[in-house]
Amino acid sequence: MNAETLFSIANTTALLSWIFLAIAPRWKWTQFIVGEIIILLLAAAYLVLVALFFGQAEGGFSSLPDVMKLFANKNVALAGWIHYLAFDLFVGVWETRDAREKGISHWLVLPCLFLTFMFGPVGFLLYYIVRSIFGRETAQGK
Fold first, then answer.
1. In a 3-state reduction of DSSP, which class is residue 2?
2. What does the buried/exposed string (b/e) look like for 110-140 if buried means 16 or more CB atoms within 10 Å of the residue's CB?
3. pLDDT tens-digit map of 63-92
4. Which among 15, 16, 34 has a CA at the least distance from the CA of 26?
5. Which of 131, 57, 48 is nearest to 97 (CA)?
6. CA Rg, the chain, in Å?
7. 21, 36, 38, 19: which is closest to 106 by C-alpha?
8. What 3-state class would DSSP assign to 63?
9. Which of 8, 12, 21, 103 suits 78 as a labelling partner, its CA being 20 to 30 A distant?
């Protein structure tokens, strides 16, 4: 499978997962399929790409120019993109689960999910603020 095909599959899968988190966050299949299956598949794809191609790329993590060289390799860049997809989706799943446990309206979580999907840490930051204001303590949270 070439990098473009894997990129398209990963992107489409992640987008569909985000749609399910937005419209059916409490459905048990959303939480199971997105929260476990999809994220694990993305993690496995990342592992395979890193194992196969990371050693072939120039660059490294010690400076910004080295990181730029590293991501000049399309397979390593794809691995990096899948890394973002998996971790942002993981955070989105956590936000929906945590909001349910803390009694936070899904309407308040939707903007957080959108921002997590688009800008990762910004959405997490907004969710943390929403959680601090609207979340109620639970027996687990004490």
1. coil
2. eebbbbbbeeeeebbebbeebbeeebeeeee
3. 999 999 989 999 999 999 999 999 999 999
4. 34
5. 131
6. 17
7. 21
8. coil
9. 21
Would you state the pLDDT for residue 107? 97
Structure tokens at 121: 């840490």
Q: Which amino acid is at 139?
A: A
Each residue of 1-11: pLDDT tens digit?
A: 899 999 999 99
Structure tokens at 19: 């749609």
Measure the CA–CA gap between 141 and 132, rounded to whole angstroms.
12
Q: What is the pTM of this model?
A: 0.89
Q: Could you tell me which of 113, 126, 122 has the C-alpha nearest to residue 17?
A: 113
53: helix, strand or coil: helix
Both tokens of 134, joined, read 């609207």
- 74's tokens: 């399309």
